[in-house]
């Protein structure tokens, strides 16, 4: 293959990696991300580790993969990397504010998805650690800004006072801005062992996922629809595919790109991530009406209080739970052609998202 200059690299990377996936409704009223790739065959039964593996492999895969240990190891790795990435500098207050929210705990689902995707396609997790940290920085930025009085006006996040309650609205806005900017700097300067073309593709993927065609689009639509009694399922899915799923999707796709995945690998993992991204929001909506603030670590019942449109509100609680189960099943279908041992973390992460309690 001929060598590529930066412009050629970017053009080819966009063609290979930056695909968009359409979606449509199920006949039963649920939303669906259709399988555009004809090589990926829809299945009619729920997919678990045992369904993906052969019967011979089932016991081996189940016994060898310890999800709790995996989560603990990856969380330690990511937390250490985040702690080292952002240190206190002048002016101290902005860096303290950034660290306050970034290191306040959290499930670290996005970094884990990024690392798991990199390893699934045969890469080393070290190549994806900067990207894993970057998506967590951007996620934290979105939480800081979401909690502001001009947005969701929340006082509690991860069991602690929100950033603006501690540092003031002005510093909170700037802390979020700084995390966003530094995320891209960190990918560009800290990623090693990966070709420039793939780093550029990863940066482009991440930028698109959070801009006016990604997270911001979903947030704007969400604000516009708050209090509107005529919001339907199509609009609700648009909001959450962009507001919540886009960054989860980017987390997985970045891992696949930086881990050396080919076009087919990236396409399958993009579809997997789109499903679990929407699943994450459906479960969030369910938890908001079924759990207490103490259990969630944030204000419960907030969506109902401000008359936000949610899946339980439009579909009813039981149908929303059925939709979550369907998204989980469809997500796992995308992994059937991968090595079941390497896919085990993503399968377990999908189940974790589906069955989490906060």
Task: Note the topology.
Blueprint: H1 6-17, E1 24-25, E2 31-32, H2 49-52, H3 55-64, H4 67-85, H5 92-102, H6 109-120, H7 129-146, E3 156-157, E4 160-161, H8 163-167, H9 169-190, H10 196-210, H11 215-225, H12 233-258, H13 263-290, H14 293-296, H15 302-305, H16 311-315, H17 317-333, H18 340-355
Summary, kept brief:
With 358 residues, the chain is mainly α. The chain has helices at residues 6-17, 49-52, 55-64, 67-85, 92-102, 109-120, 129-146, 163-167, 169-190, 196-210, 215-225, 233-258, 263-290, 293-296, 302-305, 311-315, 317-333, 340-355; strands at residues 24-25, 31-32, 156-157, 160-161. It contains 18 helices and four strands.
- Biggest sheet record: 2 strands, antiparallel
Tell me, rounded to a whole number, the average pLDDT.
83
- If strands are numbered along the chain, what order do they take across the biggest sheet? 1-2
Task: Report helical residue fraction.
Answer: 55-70%
Counting H and I runs of at least 4 residues, what is the number of helices?
Answer: 18
Beta percentage is under 5%
Structural class: mainly alpha
**Regions with pLDDT < 50 over 5+ consecutive residues?**
1-60
The number of E-state strands comes to 4
Oligomerization status of the protein chains: single chain
Q: Taking Cα atoms only, what radius of gyration do you get, to the nearest Å?
A: 20 Å
Element string (H = helix, E = strand): HEEHHHHHHEEHHHHHHHHHHH
The shape is: globular
């Amino acid at each position: 293959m001929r060598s590529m200059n930066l412009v050629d690299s970017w053009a080819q990377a966009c063609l290979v990696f930056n695909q968009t996936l359409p979606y449509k409704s199920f006949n039963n009223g649920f939303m669906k991300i259709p399988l555009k790739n004809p090589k990926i065959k829809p299945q009619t039964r729920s997919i678990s580790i045992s369904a993906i593996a052969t019967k011979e492999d089932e016991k081996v895969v189940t016994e060898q993969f310890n999800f709790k240990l995996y989560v603990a190891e990856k969380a330690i790795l990511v937390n250490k990397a985040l702690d080292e990435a952002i240190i206190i500098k002048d002016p101290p207050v902005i860096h303290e504010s950034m660290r306050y929210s970034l290191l306040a705990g959290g499930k670290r689902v996005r970094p884990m998805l990024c690392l798991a995707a990199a390893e699934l396609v045969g890469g080393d997790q070290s190549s994806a650690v900067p990207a894993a940290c970057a998506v967590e920085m951007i996620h934290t930025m979105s939480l800081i800004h979401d909690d502001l009085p001009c947005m969701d006006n929340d006082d509690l996040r991860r069991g602690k006072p929100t950033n603006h309650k501690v540092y003031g609205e002005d510093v909170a806005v700037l802390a979020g801005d700084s995390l966003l900017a530094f995320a891209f700097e960190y990918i560009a300067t800290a990623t090693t062992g990966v070709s420039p073309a793939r780093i550029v593709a990863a940066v482009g993927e991440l930028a698109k996922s959070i801009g006016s065609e990604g997270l911001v689009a979903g947030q704007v639509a969400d604000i516009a629809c708050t209090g509107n009694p005529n919001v339907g399922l199509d609009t609700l899915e648009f909001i959450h595919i962009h507001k919540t799923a886009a960054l989860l999707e980017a987390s997985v796709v970045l891992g696949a790109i930086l881990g050396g995945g080919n076009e087919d690998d990236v396409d399958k993992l993009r579809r997997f991530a789109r499903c679990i991204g929407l699943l994450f929001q459906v479960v969030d909506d369910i938890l908001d009406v079924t759990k207490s603030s103490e259990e969630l670590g944030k204000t419960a019942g907030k969506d109902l209080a401000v008359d936000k449109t949610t899946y339980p509100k439009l579909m009813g609680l039981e149908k929303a739970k059925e939709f979550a189960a369907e998204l989980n099943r469809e997500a796992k279908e995308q992994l059937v052609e991968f090595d079941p041992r390497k896919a085990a973390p993503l399968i377990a992460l999908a189940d974790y998202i589906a069955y989490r309690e906060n």
